[in-house]
Amino acid sequence: MALALENVSKHFGSLVAIRNLSLSFDVGSIYSIIGPNGAGKSTVVNMIAGSYAVTSGTIRLGETALNRLPKHRIAQLGVSRTYQNLRLFDGMTVLENLEVCFFPQSWLTFLTGAKRLSKAERLEICHACLAEFHLSDVADVLAGDLPYGRQKILELARAFVTQAPIVLLDEPAAGLNHTETKDMAAMIAGLKREDRAIILVEHDMDMVMSISDRIDVLNYGELLCSGTPDLVRTNERVQEAYLGTTEELDDIRKLAQSRRAQGGLRANAGIVRH
Amino acid sequence: MGNSVIARRLGLLAVLALCVVLLALVPYFPSYYVRVVDSILIYIILAVGLNLVVGYAGLLDLGFIAFYAVGAYAYAMLASGQFDIHLPFIVVLFIGAAAGAIAGILLGFPVLKLRGDYLAIVTLSFGEIIRIAINNADDLTNGPQGIAGLDRASLFGLPLTTPVHFYWLLLVLAIIVCAGVYYMERSILGKAWRALREDQDVVRGLGINTTTLKLLAFALSAAIGGAGGVIFGAFQRFVSPESFTFQESLLVVLIIIIGGVGNIVGVIAGAVVLVVLPEILHFAAQYRLLIYGVVLVTVIVLRPGGLVSPRFNLGFIIRKVRTLWLSPSKT
Q1: Of A151, B101, B124, B161, which residue has the fewest beta carbons closer than 10 angstroms?
Q2: What is the ipTM of this complex?
Q3: Cβ-contact A92, A154 below 8 angstroms
Q4: Residue B87's pLDDT is what?
């Protein structure tokens, strides 16, 4: 199954957030969408998930056009996501946060029970998922009481528990410290599967470069460059738009590294846009 | 098995026995007290029903009494000389619940996109619209005079006339409603409602149709309200629009807030407090609203979560009893 954006544009009033963007994502790979702040990365995620209506163009999952469907239908077809700011159900337990993903999807299944998972099956899947994400010990803890890092992992687990073929991760490393970010990167890399496409929006370059099969760089709502991490790293237009010139970049890297040595700042905390 | 376990089991048995004896003794109370208990039970049924919408799904509904009115008028029109239709009580009970559910869905559709204050205002208006419509539809409802002389109800050949008869009916119905709502609370439906209360957008992002979820909450809660209304009609044998004012809606919401939102035990406690309080303070009837206000403010200041802690819920009690009985070593 493949997800494709065909000439997609998104306008917010007079602001053009995305201009004629065409991208295609096939299962079996990890994709990263990067770009400076305001480049339109989150807009792309929100359009795919159905939170924003596209202004023009089509988003297709396989043969199905997604961009006229309501949000819950898109999710039912196999698109799951995480959010830039944590959005767990804080007043429910960790286990319940996963269980609720298995709510029957239509009146018919709800009333007849056909194709509907039994409670035991549901719990078995959820417990297996908790084990996979190292959350079994906190299954009965309220999600809001977890430390931040584990909340991030729970949100990740919630996006994967239904085995959706398309998973959108909106800044999974935001707010995590260096070690947690490395663990998160390893965890996401381990979730790569033949029947699943993972699409990542992320600022942490170490993470993006280490786990992506393809990187799409956006700038001012347009595709600047697309390719393997090595290709993107050496592309001059990307460096200019996103990272500044090579000399500046080296200075910033050094600064960032010395700061990280001091207090554990994010690697790109010092990077500014020119 | 230690002595302490036996002592605790005996204690538990004593508490249970006390409850049963109290409930069994109610019919021997003077008629006035039986009526008060009946009233408490009706408000428990209403508040537990409304709690589905307010407590679980997190949608503030200030027009709940409209569904109660729909049920009461269903009995008044289908079991009286008004149109000379005399359906049996049990049939009207189901019709009233169904009519309530339909009214609930009718209210649900226009308010689907509203949240918080806006939802509260529209539901409040809905409650008033129903009351004013009843007040003006003279041909159907006799307008402000109301409908009198409703049929004496009977259930499976047993007469339903005295407060004691209604006490047994209401007690059984209250237990059924509480058990049903408790079951729903623990099912995946209840979890989806609680998730809806926390973050509607994320719930949609999980592939759940929030429209269905909200309408289901409105319909089920309104059906309980409708059934309550039918019993009210059969009990009073007289209905008029005056019984269904905004104050009644407010009272049901207050019961939930004062008792403990989303907690069946809390709602029961709230109903007891808010029904008994005005009876005790009968001599100060004109200060009733003032007293409600003071009680509400006091509870919100001292116990913002309601009189009953959210942890002390039906699930907690059932777990406690079960562990004490099956594996006392864990307690």
Answers
A1: B161
A2: 0.81
A3: no
A4: 82
